[in-house]
Design brief:
Two copies of one chain form a homodimer.
Chain A (H helix, E strand, L loop, with lengths): L5 H4 L4 E2 L2 H7 L9 H23 L4 E10 L2 E8 L6 H9 L3 E2 L15 H13 L3 E6 L5 E9 L4 E10 L5 E9 L10 H11 L4 E5 L5 E4 L22 H9 L6 H8 L5 H10 L14 H11 L17 H12 L3 E6 L3 E3 L3 E11 L5 E2 L4 E2 L1 E6 L2 E3 L7 H7 L15 E9 L16 H53 L3 H15 L1 H5 L11 H6 L7
Parallel strand pairs in A: 2-9, 16-18
Antiparallel strand pairs in A: 2-3, 3-8, 5-6, 5-8, 6-7, 9-10, 11-13, 12-13, 13-18, 14-15, 16-17
Chain lengths: 541, 541
């Protein structure tokens, strides 16, 4: 056996840029499969547009155009009415991986990585060799357009054909040509992605021009901006030992005591005293930069031993119960729905998040199959629809671990849609492509509780339907009997048959009011739309 | 509504290192859940050790030690007898993300990213604040040890306590302390990970010292090094337009024609002529550096129109049928197994890969449940066990899409294990944590064919068992009848009853040989171990 020496092996040693890495592993960004790849592009651009509009306080209007230019090859553009991108940032925004305004802010946003937009540029480049074109105006000064490609070796933008332009409206339009992609009308296609985006963003107006030239407009359902989540200071319970040291390193406070009050939420002078009396070995008067691992460990341990006010819920803005109802009614038009907005919870000790759940029954809920129906799950994170990788997602794990039978629901055969939106300042996605939420215990548990609460509402409705159907049958049987009885009594007593019949009917009706409300025709119990309109019995408890 | 200007928003613009990214998103590296996090560390270090030993031509001996040092806190070391790491590379190997010897080579290896080892350093650092310690000797010069941590802002190593040492054996030992981890004896724990590693690496000797101090040794089952996969030149059908330009950019050939022959496999002068006559507009005499996107597109199109010899199979080395049999027998000791090694195939046009499949029945196959058994899937990629994210994996997708009933197999209730190993110069993992294979169509299809082939063998065995059981019942019925008949005939003819009985029995036995082989006791048909010993009827066709 010829042994090779380490020195020879290490002649091969190289270092690579993050752009080179994703060029080789594009499937990790969501570019695997032609349909999914096209959705990924739409997803990245539309999420960026929505974030930008909301940050600037502008009601979003987004236009997506897709045209076929060859086999598995499409030209795609996404335009918005957002704040635009200043010319000196456009290159980095769209052609530098891990650059952006969002990564370091502790704030609820759709994007959180600084990867997506540059990933699209990379994908255009490796499939068609073409740069993408950006056209933008910020409302101050002239607009511009330019072509942008990504120097993958150095993870840097290359800008060509830069032109200043007049008459461009405020906003950003990105246009590119992509191959190895496919437009498909399916549960996992662009149309469905945008339909779900509209579902969770009723304040946005979204227009899709599909490759056949047909226009689909998802109208704005609500003319008000969602509340703007505020960047918050981190909660003491959400910190790791390492986080605390990192914050201390960059702090300009003079003492650890003031550093704690200045940097974290819910930290008062009283709390400093309380913590100091537990972590006795930590010198609270020394400079934060001098904080050791031991200091930090002692402090974090102390944080866990005192009572804290929960994280500020204003940092996390869910869609809102009313908006979810309007949206679900628009899109699924269910026979009945039960909507739940849970209180803010925390995971990893202190990262706040809110779960909203809805269970919808009938109408366009569920998925039609050859045999009838099956339930489906509509997953969202910070209002962004998640269409792929459901198998690893916390939402799927929660829904699957439910004992649906306890709620009289057969998720395999009934027209049921489960809607879940998780809102947080930080969504722990399981992958760079952001298609699934990592199965953190606290998140899975909370989603399950939310689904259970919503399912209870639907259970009562379904039980009601079953009871109505049961009463209707009894009512019909007894009515047949009373008709005969009225006739017999009339014969026997010589009294008026109609009069006896009416009396008997009143008697029966008193006992089966629901059957009577249904008209007693007993075919199928009514549609129950009233229930869907006027709310959720599920919320009474 | 107060609108915010782009210029204000972009004050927040920042660029981040890839180390900062993974520090924030550690779950993407496999650090989610305490049990999984510990397995991830073991997985990264052991894969690196196996790769290093094999590259150097050394039969691997690996020692894993895990000791509990606090609540959810463990000290872990992995030592090997490999080639070691030269001191000037140790920092970058263990504390620079995206650096290594493997990323750029077109060669079958366990590691392929240059992330794993540095990810462990990062995880130690963010959970305990401690550096990891490396001790190594390469066999030339003195050995050394040092502490290594990762400067995440600059993605650079920080080395402290460097010492040269004598008397250190050749190899590498990495030791670190990690919190937020847990040692658990489960299907997803370290012991099971190493058990499966031994299953797919019978040439390696692996020792685990668990937190109770108990030693588990997975003995080397085969005393020969696996064939060494060779780095190969890429196959023309595996190239994208962009790949071809990238290769052309760094080529030192004078002309495109010689560049093609020098750079790619299966490219002869004849092929250059053939391609040239299709891609008429490409000037084959011009310098490769001058290749345009149009040139490359025309060439790639032409590549698809001519016939090519398949990619060189020597670049992909599967475990091997005999080794798989030995390994499965050692670990599952099944009643029966059917093992299949498929021929090399390609995905994405030209990346070669080989699938090995085994279906094992009985013994320790499957997973015990409260009600009995259920089938399980043992997934491997380049001999590395994949324990997590099965929901998104190509192997799971293939196994789930099988119509098991057609093979008389009830995967939900029978003691069945499906073993799959995918070997390739490039495994398209779905995530950075490398726990699932992306569902590329060609890979899913090929895995399915492999499982089907193996399942046919098991089907015949199970059918045989059912047939035996059927014959045994018939035999018993007829035997009851012949006993009476012999008695009656003896009475009738006055002849010897025993003689008639023996004659009748011989007659019956001729028709039901299997039942007789089973002894005709008809309880449960025999264990069929012979079948497992002497091979697989499944391979006859």
């Amino acid at each position: 056996m010829v042994e090779l020496k380490a020195e020879e092996i290490f002649k091969e040693f190289r270092q690579h840029s993050v752009a080179e890495f994703f060029k080789k592993n594009r499937q990790m960004l969501g570019y695997s499969g032609m349909t999914r790849s096209l959705v990924t592009i739409v997803h990245e651009y539309v999420s960026n547009s929505l974030d930008a509009c909301e940050e600037a306080g502008i009601l979003p209007e987004i236009a997506v155009r897709i045209a076929e230019t060859g086999e598995s090859r499409y030209r795609l553009s996404v335009g918005d009415n957002g704040p635009g991108i200043p010319k000196n940032y456009i290159g980095k925004v769209l052609a530098t991986i891990l650059a952006g305004t969002k990564f370091h802010r502790y704030m609820q946003q759709r994007g959180q990585q600084g990867i997506g937009g540059s990933g699209c540029t990379l994908f255009s480049q490796i499939t068609t060799g073409k740069p993408i074109t950006a056209t933008s105006a910020t409302g101050t000064g002239r607009g511009y357009s330019c072509n942008i490609s990504l120097d993958t070796v150095h993870n840097k933008p290359v800008i060509t054909e830069y032109k200043e332009l007049d008459g461009i409206q405020r906003g950003l339009t990105v246009e590119g040509e992509f191959a190895d992609v496919k437009y498909e009308n399916s549960d996992h296609g662009v149309y469905e992605y945008l339909r779900r985006t509209a579902l969770s963003n009723p304040h946005a107006q979204i227009k899709l021009t599909d490759p056949t030239g047909q226009e689909h407009v998802f109208l704005r359902a609500i003319d008000a901006m969602p509340l703007r989540p505020k960047p918050i200071r981190p909660h003491p319970l959400g910190l790791t030992v390492n986080d605390l040291i990192d914050f201390a390193q960059v702090s300009e406070s003079r003492k650890i005591s003031s550093f704690l009050v200045d940097t974290f939420s819910r930290f008062s002078q009283d709390k400093v005293g309380e913590i100091g009396s537990i972590a006795k070995d930590v010198d609270m008067a020394k400079a934060p930069k001098g904080m050791t691992w031991g200091d930090s460990e002692a402090l974090i341990k102390a944080f866990k031993q005192v009572k804290w006010i929960a994280p500020d819920a204003t940092s996390v803005i869910p869609i809102g119960e009313e908006q979810v109802k309007v949206a679900i009614k628009n899109i699924l038009n269910p026979e009945f729905m039960s909507v739940v907005e849970r209180k803010p919870k925390v995971f990893r000790g202190g990262v706040p998040f809110v779960v909203e759940a809805a269970v919808a029954y009938g109408g366009n809920s569920g998925r039609k199959t050859d045999e009838g129906y099956e339930g489906n799950i509509l997953r969202f994170a910070n209002r962004v629809p998640l269409l792929f990788d459901s198998g690893t997602c916390a939402v799927t794990a929660a829904a699957k671990s439910m004992d649906w039978k306890r709620y009289n629901i057969d998720i395999d055969t009934q027209p049921i849609s489960v809607f879940i939106n998780v809102s947080s300042v930080y969504i722990p996605y399981s992958g760079v492509g952001k298609e699934a939420i990592s199965q953190e215990d606290e998140i899975v548990d909370e989603i399950k509780l939310a689904i259970m609460e919503a399912a209870r509402g639907v259970q009562r409705y379904i039980s009601g339907k079953m009871q109505i159907s049961h009463e209707t049958n009894k009512y019909k049987t007894i009515k047949r009997y009373t008709e005969q009885l009225a006739k017999d009594l009339a014969d026997l007593t010589g009294k008026d048959k109609e009069g006896i019949d009416r009396q008997l009917e009143r008697l029966v009706a008193k006992h089966y009011p629901k059957a009577l409300a249904e008209g007693g025709d007993g075919e199928q119990p009514g549609s129950g739309e009233a229930a869907a309109e006027d709310g959720e019995p599920g919320e009474e408890e």
